[in-house]
């Protein structure tokens, strides 16, 4: 395919697929079966996190530095030489962010970015992509505030793609892909705004042919 665009991303997410880059930079699209989601209504912070939240160790911001969050998430981890977040992916998601469709939740100590996460918001769905931390618990606090925001803005679905130990700690479960697609089609039609006090965005899944 040609270079990945923000429009490609929107079309993919609205149809239940998402891209990842291989070590050579090649892009592949995925639609896992089963699919991992985090139920928004049943999430509860771990007991060990509650004292951290009460101490207000981090200042939380939305979309203060989206690209910086992505670049931190793209750094290799656990001795691995590469990640699935290529430069092409970073550019496409930053373009999507400029369109008001991709958002980050960021944790700061003073003016220093120390943790956060990013994802894509379409209708009443937030598609979580990746998170990072430089200070202990910073990404967990950012995730907690993500959930609080999704609840406040009445989002219906939080997609986390694949199940793993990291998302399990936040209450992730697996559901069949067909069930996920049913939830997706319903939720993306709901007009929601990720950032408070901004216009909500509505998407009709039957009008995506031009993307």
From TrEMBL:
Gene3D superfamilies: Leucyl/phenylalanyl-tRNA-protein transferase, C-terminal domain, Leucyl/phenylalanyl-tRNA-protein transferase, N-terminal domain
A Pfam family annotated for this UniProt entry: Leu_Phe_trans
Subcellular location: Cytoplasm
Membrane spanning stretches: none
Enzyme class: transferase
Enzyme Commission identifier(s): 2.3.2.6
Keyword Transferase set for record: yes
Acyltransferase as UniProt keyword: yes
Keywords of this entry: Acyltransferase, Cytoplasm, Transferase
Chief place of localization: cytoplasm
Function: Functions in the N-end rule pathway of protein degradation where it conjugates Leu, Phe and, less efficiently, Met from aminoacyl-tRNAs to the N-termini of proteins containing an N-terminal arginine or lysine.
The protein's name in its UniProt record: Leucyl/phenylalanyl-tRNA--protein transferase
Lineage: Bacteria, Pseudomonadati, Bacteroidota, Cytophagia, Cytophagales
